[in-house]
Amino acid sequence: MSNITIITSEKNWIEDTAITQLKGVAALPGVVRTVGLPDLHAGKSPVGAVVVTKGVIYPHIIGGDIGCGMGLYSTGVECRKFKLERWVTKLNNIRELSDIQTVNPYEEPSPIYDLGTIGGGNHFAEFQVVEKVYDQETCAMLELDESQVMLLLHSGSRSYGQRILNEYKDCHGLAAGSEAMQSYLADHDQALLWAARNREIVVNKLLGYLGYTSQIQKLIDCQHNFIEQKGDVYIHRKGAVSAELGPVIIPGSRGSLTYIVKPAGNTEVSAFSLSHGAGRKWARSLCKSRIRNKYDRDTIRQTKLKSRVVCHDTDLLFQEAPEAYKNIDTVIASLLQFGLIHVVATLRPVLTYKG
């Protein structure tokens, strides 16, 4: 189809099911362009995809986790003072973040729902350290301090966004200018705000529980699931970030590096969007049967990078194992090949918390 672009390379694997899903979306009325990024994989709608429409929007493409995204924070904790075993022990004492009371710091009314929680699936909080700096100037602009522990948080609007989708999920599309579209976009924008606030609350809550609260600084926050109006078109990003808001975070799995990149000058080819991560390689239902003989209850909680994982859900540990994800280096190489990014720095995980 002439309105489909796929950003990939010879070494980057993309499953046929994801491409079929992308073609299905491309055939919807009003779709003028679709882009599959290197992390493209199948979901309820294709993930790692950008869909540009005119005269209509499609809430089901974005899905229920409106505003899902990632925030990178400087913790104020010096790497030399980081005590891995102490933090592992303390985090193992809570099953999930809802065990810690949430304080909503915002004055205006805000839906509580699951405020102050990370969520399941591929959501996580991960403590990381700087592995390598490639662009010192941009790191300085971001105030990325190599001597400090970083915290990368992946979370979204939780049940708030899902409730919004439930009101519009039967729609085949909302016409531009219609009351239904205006109502959805107003709710959508509130979910974006809620998701960003939730990430900040989770970070403060988690570090406060560990005993560190005074030096937290947000360096980057980028959304993955949202609709943006650009001129007379609407850009639907499902598992994709904007390439027009400065540096972004592209993580791999809990067993691989995270990349900080800045957009290069060729992002029109990707509908002004970049990848949001490595992208899944295996369906969650297949993971445990494929690798259960490789790990025991202890080794599944460690990675080849010598980082540790705290998670009380054994099934989730297997579903989110590094093997379930594509090679992040290959995804980054594909983006570089298309002239879409410059690499700023890489970060290495030291402790991943899921719950």
TrEMBL record:
Q: Which GO terms describe its biological process?
A: RNA processing; RNA repair
Cross-referenced InterPro entries: RtcB, RtcB-like_sf, RtcB2
* Residues the entry annotates as binding Mn(2+) 2: H154, H224
Keywords (A to Z) from UniProt: GTP-binding, Ligase, Manganese, Metal-binding, Nucleotide-binding, RNA repair
List, separated by semicolons, the cofactors it needs.
Mn(2+)
Give the top-rank taxon of the lineage listed in the UniProt record for this protein: Bacteria
Please list the residues that bind GMP.
N122, H123, F124, A125, E126, H224, N225, H276, G277, A278, G279, K354
The cofactor note from the UniProt entry for this protein is: Binds 2 manganese ions per subunit.
Kind of enzyme, top EC level? ligase
The catalytic site is made up of H276 (gmp-histidine intermediate)
User: What reaction gets catalysed by this protein?
Assistant: a 3'-end 3'-phospho-ribonucleotide-RNA + a 5'-end dephospho-ribonucleoside-RNA + GTP = a ribonucleotidyl-ribonucleotide-RNA + GMP + diphosphate
> Any idea of its EC number?
6.5.1.8
Q: Where does Mn(2+) 1 bind?
A: H123
An example Gene Ontology molecular-function term: metal ion binding
Instruction: Output this protein's name.
Output: 3'-phosphate/5'-hydroxy nucleic acid ligase
Q: Which organism is it from?
A: uncultured Sporomusa sp
